[in-house]
Predict the 3D structure of the following.
Amino acid sequence: MAIRRRSVIKASLGTVIGAGVGMPLYLPAARAQQFPSRPITFIVPWPAGGSSDLTLRAVAERASKVLGQPFIIDNKGGAGGTLGPAQMASAAKPDGYTVAQLPITVFRLPVMQKTVFDPMKDFTFISHLSGYTFGVTTNAEQPYKTFKDVVEYAKANPGKVTYGTPGAGTSLHIGMERIAAQAGVKWTMVPFKGGAETNAAVLGKHTTLQADSTGWKPLVDAGQLRLLCVWTAQRTKNWPDVPTLKDLGYDMVFDSPFGVGGPKGMDPAVVKKLDEAFKIASEDKDVIATYAKYDMAARYMDHAAYDKFARALYLDEKAGLEKLGLAAKG
């Protein structure tokens, strides 16, 4: 069962939304002018407490002040981050009162298996927001001092190295399998719902490794987990001594760009209002500071740019998965 937790990001008091008052409510233009007149549900498709959840809460809090209505954060972890967006696509009205983070798995999982949604038909792409710093950690008590140590053990012991990820089809899963292909090793993926669970798994030595975004930062900084490598283009400011995959000889960069979307068929005027709010949020100093805390950066794109980017991303993911032999047959 997917983990669910609902909470409210409060809008600033005193904000007045008066546009469209007195106009017939059945007219789309009137509804767009009055939007939003009630709270907006923001689906975060990961459990509460991870880097995705915390950064998206910061974005939602600032956007709520722009819109004058609170965001209700609805954590729906599961299916590699696609459960929440899939439920939104199938059940939510396209009125702007339900939006969701769209992780890269939304574009990837339909290539790998049959899904109830089509990423090119069932979403309205509102705003692109950011991307992740991914890394591989192990319990500090494990004997592996470097990523090379793990690879050497995996070569000698096929399948015995286990790694936790937020689920099949996520960038962490695909990235680890691409590393395995280049290194000539075989290891075993263990799926979880999000960073809180992968942290617990590697900390408790239930998995050898954890491949995830920077929800592991406090445990790494406290010396409980050892960060073996990061998947960014350059070394990070927070851990400058930790090598990138490129430093280790793997020609790979994984940062999983993500944005916010709604159901298909949204009123362009409502999309514009939401997009403008997310733009202001992306430029807010507190939001930027929250991103930086988790080694992320604001990479805002407006509705039109994000729509174009998303469609190109889907084609890139499809080609890559077909090359790896992970695309569904038939």
Summary: The first helix runs from residue 28 to 34. Confidence is low (pLDDT under 50) at residues 1-5, 12-27. The chain has two domains: 4-131+257-324, 134-230.
